[in-house]
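URGENT: need a sanity check before tomorrow's submission.

F., can you look over the DUF2200 domain-containing protein record below? I want to be sure the sequence and structure line up before it goes out.
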Amino acid sequence: MAKHPIFTMPFSKVYPLYVQKAERKNRTKVEVDQIIFWLTGYDQAGLKQQIELENDFETFFAQAPAIHPNSSLIKGVVCGVRVEEVDDPLMQKIRYLDKLIDELAKGKSMEKILRQ
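Structure tokens as predicted:
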């Protein structure tokens, strides 16, 4: 079975879109980064390296230090798909990130977004 095109898309191409989406709704790049750090376990240096190396989403998540144990609490619909029902583990992680960025853009508090 062929890989989904998003798996081979460079994370560095999508990251600025996440930031733009947040900033259009008066949120910040710092908040986007905080969400990524929480979900993946990356720190600022690790995220910067992933972007500079132009790693694809598959590599980005494969090299993530630690997917947050509370990520399973992320529920809801993104792009018409319920994130908790996505079968492919990589696609589910990508959808988790999309959902968290959506929640940020919709004005949710960071405490709620980070499932605290």
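My own read: The chain has a mean pLDDT of 95. Strands lie at 77-78, 81-82. If you see anything odd, call me.
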